[in-house]
Amino acid sequence: MEGWFATDADAISLQCWDQEVLLPGGHGLMVRGYRPVINTLAKGLDIRLGHRYAYLCFSSKCYEHGSTFRLLVLIQALLLRVVEIVRHWNRVEVTVSNGKTFVADAAVITVPLGVLKSNTIKFEPRLPEWKEEAIRELSVGVENKIVLHFSEVFWPNVEFLGVVSSTTYGCSYFLNLHKATGHAVLVYMPAGRLACDIEKMSDEAAAQFAFSQLKKILPNAAEPLNYLVSHWGSDENTLGSYTFDGVGKPRDLYEKLRIPVDNLFFAGEATSVQYTGTVHGAFSTGEMAAEECRMRVLEKFRELDMLEMCHPMAEQTATVSVPLLISRL
Is the N-terminal amide bond of 156 cis, ω within 30° of 0? Predict the structure, then answer.
């Protein structure tokens, strides 16, 4: 439960913990990660990297009015930071830390909930109270990954190896990547306070701690060759892993976070009522925000048939093939 919700058991809502809708089908693992999906979806888009929140900028033209509608989609990236978002009745201005300002008719904001909660982005004018309440009251958890690479496999051919403890604090598990990838790799997955405490360690110390947990299960475990450690809770670009149902928190907070404010549209896993904390939740709310933004364009220009997306792929009807490799565990 703690791994599923990325928090401690005493923080999970007993009333709402089982409200998430599970998709049908077996459990699978993206062997090559999400890069093939991202690269395919990004084809033909004007993407501005080198910012803490990247910009996907594209235009739609309304022939009758001879004007172009420009949209900014703010997602997570690196380096510069978005410091201010100013909304006007007819445009949005997004300023980054080097002083540069991007101007568009609308913006879709998909930055992580942890970043929104940190108030590092100034909204001018301030967001409505109900929106600020949703940001403030929603709960974001931390679950990290400590990847251990070994010279050979010495563990059983199972999907998970659980770490049993006398307290919930010490409970965690290992994900067996050998079963899916063929590589001798185990991933230690601590959550909640344990994950936050491990983030205070050096990467070497964190890997040693993970290995000590493995030796509790398999005393004859061999030393790992190398390791990789995530820091989702303290990384300033995330400040958490994903959202969970907190004790005493109403379910309508997710919808309040999703509802647009003028020409600002919101998407991401924290805005999904049914699929909170998931990639498909983030993707589906992104599609919803895009459709709401499209309808705003149509309403603005009062033209239902003359809107043309200025996108290199717009006139192509063939389905794009995504080079995915999915392992059924």
Answer: no
